[in-house]
Amino acid sequence: MFRTIWSNAGLDLYVFPYRVTATAPGCGVIDVLPNSTSRDMLGREAVNGLYEYFITKFGPENSIEFQNARNNLIKSLAAYSIISYLLQFKDRHNGNIMYDEQGHILHIDFGFCFDIVPGGVRFEAAPFKLTHEMIMVLGGNDQTQSFKWFEELCVKGYLSCRPYMEFIVRSIIPMLESGLPCFKENTIKNLRQRFVPTKSKRKQHYTLEN
Predict the structure, then answer these.
(1) Largest CA distance in the chain
(2) Between 160 and 34, whose confidence is greater?
């Protein structure tokens, strides 16, 4: 859904959808993410940080391979950041964060979303996961060209979703009766509020940038 929205808007944002095939009530098979590894596994392989991993895998920072991988990271990081905020993905630990052979970040395991949190304790105040090591790959601070491009993609990607608010909401409403614990009384109300429909596009653009 989000990939289609961004494609229609002409935005080069990257997500990797994978299928879940139901095999029985409460059971199913999930697609494997090919040619990818979790951040947790990289840590077990004695990788000190994401920047060091990119250097080792793609070459020095001034190489074309590194720059292409960094661009792929930015496009996918922006996409998953927007989705994580709108759908309120929680529990984004290193076992749920993957990196593929081209440098894209990929998210898996969406058991905690919308209005459910691990242990019932809301401790994740950040709207999405953006770590220091990710920023290091983007140049080390929020003033670099790469980080500015990441911010720009986040703003454009979010704003392009706002006209589709009701379409996204309607796709979720049928799931409210599923009995899944992530759906509460105010789930749809809270979702609509994250689109800030009462703000003009210009005002919301300013808010996001600041």
Answers:
(1) 52
(2) 160
pLDDT digits over 57-96, tens only? 999 999 999 999 999 999 999 999 999 999 888 766 777 8
**pLDDT for position 106:** 93
The C-alpha atoms of residue 152 and residue 168 are separated, in whole angstroms, by 23
Residue 111 CA to residue 91 CA, distance in Å, equals 8
Domains annotated on the chain, with CATH: 2-209 (1.10.1070.11)
- Amino acid 79: pLDDT: 96
Axis crossing angle, helix 50-58 with helix 64-87, rounded to the nearest 10? 140
Q: Is 103 exposed, middle or buried (0-12, 13-18, 19+ CB in 10 A)?
A: buried
How much is the pTM? 0.86
CA atoms of 127 and 132, how far apart (whole Å): 15
207: pLDDT strictly greater than 70: no
Q: What is the CA radius of gyration of the chain?
A: 18
Residues belonging to the chain: 210
- Distance (Å, rounded) from C-alpha 210 to C-alpha 207? 5
